Amino acid sequence: MAGVRSRNFEGWPLFANSFRPFFLLAAIQAGLSILAWLPMFYGELSVSSAFAPRDWHVHEMLYGFLPAVITGFLFTAIPNWTGRLPIQGTSLGALLAVWIAGRVAVTLSADIGWAFALAVDAAFLTLVVAAATREIIAGGNWRNLPVVVLVLVLLAGNVAFHLEAHYAGAADVGIRVGIGVVVMMISLIGGRIIPSFTRNWLVKFNPGRLPVPFGRFDGVVIGCSAIAIIAWIVAPLSTVTGAVMALVGVLHLVRLARWAGDRTFRERLLLILHVGYVFVPLGFLLHAFAVFGALPPSAGIHAWMAGAAGTMTLAVMTRASLGHTGQALTASPATQAIYAAIIVAALARVAAVVWPAHSDALLHLAACGWIVAFLGFAIAFGPLLAGSRRRALAIMGVPVPAR
Question: What is the DSSP code string of 157-213?
Fold first, then answer.
């Protein structure tokens, strides 16, 4: 891996690294969006969006919140991959402003026009793809270019979402494309960082059986996952799609079992990565059951989105926020509470589909868990991301050293 170049940053620490503003604002947006969604779902609140309420909710999770987290991660990782300088200061602030403009444009698209909202919203991922491609090519780091290709597909899915919502009245393929990209990113990136982080911790604190490193089997699983997801995008309820989904779900379970997650219980910051990844095979298996009529199709979608995406984003956000600000890589009581809340939210959201008789109570439980998890992250980690280390440690329940 290339060595990281850096420069002194004398401005507001929030704009010193990409993960700082994007993780913080993504968490705030994720919490507030769900806070607004339940009243919208029950017809008690409306926004001036050209999207139907369901599409607004799906879009702001899939193409609003998640791209912000992906960008924070991507532009923090790229300097490690390439050895080039990170995006900071004014450039970072401008990129953040484009993301915020997209959220406003989508929410007010009924007033400003759907085409203008599409242009503003798509501008963010367009800039992310352009900047990431430039950095990776300039750094000669070709092996990580597939991640940028996935972001490009995410951009295409976003454009498709807008077009479908306008011309067909509701998004369909654009939703599945976006979800497929997210699942592939978790499979690809998670398959590298989870066994690596686990190995590093086990060698130091719990010697014994170690994770199997990324190898040929992982490549086969990712390739099969891509085939299954493409089949799902094209023909979600095909019998062939269901069979492939079932096979890939089992392959992911085998893959997860090879990472020695059962030996990480002592460190929740590590355990949560394994728990979050469980929702990837669960989503594939639930989709397979749906194809054969055993469950509604949305069960697998919520396993992937509320479960895999929600849990893995918080797992990565908490770990990266601690590691890149020089804190100890261990889960504080506040961090563990965040993890508990997102797991409750994910399980309740899937259960609301599986047990429709209890869906109202389970939806409220899922929403509360999600809001607590993401706004809890913003409260606990916000001061750290904005540059106030002492206040952040006090909020998280970590002893603050005397001055």
Answer: HHHHHHHHHHHTSS-SHHHHHHHHHHHHHHHHHHHHHHHHHHHHHHHHHS-S--PPP
